[in-house]
Each structure stands twice: as structure tokens, then as C-alpha cells.
Amino acid sequence: MTASRLLIWLPKDQRKPLLQRLLIVWLVAFPIAVATWMGHKSDGLPHRFDVSLVYAYAISTCIWLFTDVSRFVFKRLLRSQGPHHWPPALRASLMLLLGIPLGYVLGTLVGDAYAGWSTWDLWHFNRNRFAGMVVSSVAISAAFVAFFYQRAKAESLAQEVTQSQLMLLQSQLEPHMLFNTLAHLRALIGHDTGRALAMLDHLNDYLRTTLQASRQPVHQPLHPLADEFSRLHDYLSLMAIRMGPRLVFELDLPPALAAARVPSFILQPLVENAIRHGLEPVVAGGRIVVQARAEGDQLLLTVRDNGCGISQLALTESTHALMPATERPVASWGLTHVRQRLHTLYSERAGMHISPVPTGGTCVVLTLPLATPAAT
Fold first, then answer.
1. What distance lies between CA 65 and its chain's CA centroid?
2. Residue 98 and residue 178 in contact, taking contact as beta carbons nearer than 8 Å
3. How far is it, in rounded angstroms, from Cα 67 to Cα 193?
4. Which residues sit opposite 286 in a β-bridge?
């Protein structure tokens, strides 16, 4: 039976972090075993090194099970919430108060069974050593849990900040499009009712999906790729009515990838940059192609245009997140934001590559883990 089948009850994005935390616990358990063994040697008491190893690993693993794994098993009772599934402070404290002693007792029983004696007998002839052993074990375990908890909180806070930046970016990008669209709509109503109605329908759909995306919970940052493409279709249809024959677009989404989960609003800044900075400055306009492809366990999202190309300044600054947003070119701000969101959500598992097209224009490729509802 593979590890993935054993951990199928866990959220997919938490399986690897859970095993990483277990590995850290085991790495630290080894020096604890060495220290325990050396302590017994200094007392002149017979104590084999393998016995110290079993006690250290059994106790640390059991405490890990009762404090880390249990929050997923009892997530409803603990009211644990994603993305890191830590329960509220009071319930987390109660979980630790129960989980650490239970893990210590169970781990000690496993060690006793291996060693052939009872640790609890130590209480009768050396209470100070017994108390010191219990306190040190519990303190080390509590320190580990506190470290993992604070790290998860920090990651969650970073994601909330990124979502807030997303809302700010939307507030900057959408008025430019909305005001121009309404002005064009007013002009069309008088002499081309059909195009005006089509434009109004696309605007209605676009605003509805935008509102839904803005209300998306922070702990649920992903949505189906089909929704992302549907939003782009409405946006590009609006732009095509505004620009007329100057804008041609193609959306290529294979049916097999329609349910793949992607960050909401991740392609919109790229498409808007392509129009505003690639096609609009060109008298003849141009073409935009948005494409989704799967390569193994990776999802590739490509936005390509044949416009005037990205400036070297925007291309350079898009890789520097520390530059104040007010000092960046608008194109660079959008690109930087997309890069930051990918890093926050996927760390090193995702990336963005920007390159000029030899025949003219810009190609932006996003690479991120391929996630589907069945795999999450």
C-alpha cells in the first residue's frame, strides 16, 4: 500500500507538509535518544542505546500523532479550517493538553514493552529523575507543536495579504475597463442596438463572475480553470466589441483540464497587460491566444500576443517584489502580483516565465501543479 493511499483521508495539499513535520520530529528524536543514553551512562545505570532510541522515537511519534494528525481526524469537532487546518486557540490548547500527555504515555508503554521493564517504577525509587524526564519530554514536544503552529499561521497571514493585494489590483484594473466600456456602450446604443445588447450581456456576465471571485474565502483561493476561461471570454468579448477588427482572440482549454483548480484572477492581469501594452498601441491591433496544457503533473497556462512587446523595464521589474507598487510600471505591477501569488500558494512548485516572441509580441507561461477535484 502506497503512502498516498494511506493518507487519502488528508487534504492533498497537507500530505507532504505532514510527512515533512514527522521527518523533522524524527531528526530531533535522535539527539534526544543520544542525550538520554549518555545521561544513563553517567549515572552508572545499565541502559542500551537501542532502548533509548525506541523510547525517543515512540514518544515523539505518538505525541505527533495525537497533536498533529488528530487535528485532521477530529477537524469537525475541533472546527479546524483550511488552508492549514489549525483549530481556534481554545480548542487547540485543549487538544495539546490532552494530546501531549496521551502521546507521552502511549510512547512510554511502547518503550517499556521493548525494554522489558516499567518506567513508572522509576517513580518509586527516583522521583526527581522521573519528573525531569516527563517535563523535558513534554516541553520539547510542546515547543515543536508551537513552532509548527506559528509557521502555519505565518503562511496563512501571507496568503491573506496576497488576497488583499489581489482585491487592490482588481480595484485598479477594472475601473479603466469599466468606464471605457460604458462610454463605448453609450455610443453604440444610438446606432447599433445589436452590438450594444451583446456588449451589455458580456458586461453583465463579467461583473457577476468578478463579484463572485471577490467574495471567495481566503482559505479557498482556487477555482475551476473553466471559470477562469469563462471570465476571460467575457472580458475579451467586451474588448473585441470596443476594438472591433483590431482584436482577435483565441481561448484553448482542453475539456480534460476544465475542472483543474487554479488561483482565481490569475490570468486576467496577463491578458489586460497584453491588450493595454501590447495591442492597443499598435494601429492594426493584433491577436491574443490563451492556452492551457498539461505536461505530466504540471499545468501550463500560456498568454501570447503579437503586439509591440513588453518593455525591458517592465520585464526587469516584474521579478523584483520589493519595489513599491506606486513606482512600478502598470504592466510590471500586474506581472509582479501574479508572481507573488504563485509563490505564496505553491512556493517553488510554480513559476512564471516571460519572453519576447521573435516575430513580435510577448509570451507569458505560468507553470503550476496540476490539481483536480478528485486529487484534492
1. 24
2. no
3. 64
4. 247
What counts of helices (H) and strands (E) characterise the chain?
13, 7
Query: Quick one: cell of 66?
Result: 495525537
Nearest of 55, 47, 70, 144 to residue 104 by alpha carbon? 55
Q: Residue 63 has which C-alpha cell?
A: 505525541
Phi/psi at 113 (nearest 5 deg)? -65, -35
Strand-pair partners of 351 = 367
Q: How far apart are CA 55 and CA 115, in angstroms?
A: 9
- The packing angle between helices 12-42 and 49-64, to 10°, is 150
Q: What string of H, E and C letters represents the secondary structure of 242-268?
A: HHHHHEEEEEECCHHHCCCEEECCCCH
CA atoms of 220 and 173, how far apart (whole Å): 23
Task: Identify the sign of the CA torsion 109, 111, 116, 120.
Answer: negative
| Residues listed for the chain | 376
**How much helix, strand and coil, in percent to the nearest 5, is found in the chain?**
65, 10, 20
Q: What is the pLDDT along the chain (376 residues), one digit of tens a residue?
A: 455 556 666 666 677 778 888 888 888 888 878 887 887 665 555 578 888 889 888 988 888 888 888 877 787 787 776 656 667 767 777 777 788 778 888 888 898 888 887 776 656 655 665 665 566 666 666 666 666 566 656 656 666 665 555 555 554 445 656 767 777 777 778 777 887 888 888 777 777 776 665 555 545 578 899 989 988 998 898 888 888 889 999 999 999 999 999 988 889 889 988 888 889 888 888 999 999 999 988 999 999 999 887 765 455 555 544 344 444 444 456 787 788 888 878 878 899 999 988 888 999 999 999 876 644 4
